[in-house]
Specification:
The protein has 24 helices and 20 strands. With about 775 residues, it is of the alpha+beta class. Strands 1, 2, 3, 4, 5, 6, 7, 8, 9 and 10 form a 10-stranded mixed sheet that branches. Strand 16 and strand 17 form a beta hairpin. The longest helix is centred in the first third of the chain and has 44 residues.
Length: about 775
Amino acid sequence: MNAVWRAARAAVRRRRVQTFVIGLVVLCSTTTVLLALALLDAASGPFEKAHARQRGAHVVASFDTGRVSPEQLARTAGRPGVEAAAGPFGQAVVNVPDGWLWTAGGTLSVVGRADPGGPVDRIELLEGHWATAPGEIVVNWPSQGSPGPELLGTTLDSPGGPKLTVVGFAAGMSKSASAWVTPGQMAAMHPASAQMLYRFTDASSASRLDAALAEVTADLPGGSLTGAQDYFTLKAAFSALADSYLPFITFFGVLGLLVSCLIVGNVVSGAVVSGYRHIGVLKAVGFTPNQVVGVYLTMVCLPAAVGCVLGTLAGNALAGPILKVAFSGIETGRASVGAYGTWVSVVCLAGMPALVLLTALAPALRAHRLPAARAISAAGAPRPGRGRRVQRLLGGSRLPRSVSLGLGQPFARPARTLLTLSAIVLGVTTVTLATGLTGTMLAYEDAGRDGGTRIQVSAGGPGNGRTPPTLTDPQIEDRLRALPGTAGVRARALSQAHLAGQAQTVFADFYRGDASRDAHRIVRGRAPEAEGEVVAGPAFLTQLGLAVGDRTVLELHGRQAPVVVVGELIEGNAQALEASWPTLLELAPDLRATEYTVRLTPGTDARAQAEAVEAIDPGLRARVPDTSNAGTTTVVTFSTVFTVLLTLVASLGVFNTVLLNTRERRRDLGMLKSIGMTPRQVVVMTVTSVAGPGAVGGLLGIPLGMVAHRLVVDHVGVVSFPEAMKDVWHAPQLAFLLLAGVVIAVLGALVPARSAARATIATVLHTE
């Protein structure tokens, strides 16, 4: 082994270029793989750990107490398949005023519970103490961190309800309630529904949970189950934004692995082929075939190990800011977002060298079988006759001799050419995918700009600590429309609401006025217009199991209204829906608009218009919103980084192929120069030898990239792109992409081609 180690170290020092290529390829591939694994783990691991730690409910079920008794509900805890259960707990909806605890007013789902512990859904107390006396309430605080003790003692004087004092803040991963009171206080509130929390022995899928809940409630009166929320719905809500980034990051990670395997195999195979004489010498001086294999595997694993370590460090350095962006704005409960397990780094540190080792094993075994005499006599040259027929056909054409010779070279080494072609195809696929994603996201950002300049106007009130406007809501809208330069006004009212059968509070946005932006935001169906019509984004509809045409009941301020989903938005908050203004008038006629979007005519100064708006009423504040989209910036940035990395790796593969070819053809190059070939012709011949595979790689990579683009954009959970945003391919783009393979090939071939052109005839023939 000492001899193997010394020979491998000497080979690493002698083959510096190949050593550098292997290390850099593994570094780039390890970085992309680690980013994909880190995002995958961060999207699911933290939620599952926090949910298990709190013994979160697999299903939160709501029942109509007018149809089923508490005793009947309690007996369901002993049904087959139930691991643990808690309840029944009384459940009521409480009205809250606008600005209470710095939130939008509306409704609050309150549950009567004696303590935060129990076999299911153990609530984590953050501040204060649990409600133990009448008139006390504990509020669910879903955000990270603690609200602080200064908010304790805040009172809730609900219209038509009891006066409650906030004595604590808590968090539960099951999202079973927005607040909790004592069972005695809940009895005084005359709840119309009850809640049961279940953990099942088989919670492997949403369908299994549905089947288990159906079996548990089979003996209850029909219609008593009014709604259920399962564990997978919460998990989807937690990771919705991260999951939208996961498809394309995973795709780039897979591309990195494939390119790494191809190029490492190409490099090692080339090292064996170009080192025939070295192999023969090793065997001649006494190295056994197994020791020769050990030398070449060690020679590859040394730079691979260094590249893997550096790639892991680079991936960990990039993962922090990337995960921070990916998880921004997610309601997390007590889960630690942006964190991923140490297993990700361990897998990369152990897996990538192992992958390189397996890839290198096949060409290294060739050195095992090669006899010493044949290895020394072969000296790395291609076998006679290989590719001669193609060379003769090209030589008879009218192409310049340097071009015809270059086009025929790939046929002399078909296996090596195939590996290089595969790397170019993957490189073009990456460029095509990145171009498509960029086009889709820019179209998505343009749609969000609403076709022109806008200003955002907010009305003061208790919720933002400002003086309310002196004008009424209709008067404000009339004044805004009367301003010169105004093209349209859209009013918005926000309130917390409650959907029938759902434990979580939802946010309802009610709009009236200018509807110009709806045409860009609706993917399916239409915008809400009449009373009882709502729309929502794909994440909201998926989590609640709704689709366009479905009906439900919206509750606000003690009133209920049947609503129908008439449209699906391109994107939307996972906890928010949008409704028509007539629906608001039915549920809360006294609720006024708190925000106005003013669309300006072309050429209007937005800053001056904002000043004119604030002069209307001291309670109004106007700003020019930032029209940039964080998702667009993130996707374009990620795509650019990964494209640069993988294009660099593919170019390194071409570089290695051309370098090996020029070294093998030293004698041929010397003879060609001796009969008059100029250095410029040598460069043309060498570059042409990879330009052909580059053009073929472009033809093959473009359709693969287009298919990958469609797969990625069709599986973004929080955005439902319309067909117009997916159709981003045009003739100039396709022409550019067709040249991408040639560009990758030329970039990789240029340096060794110039090196071959500078070599003198005497030096080349003397070394032979």
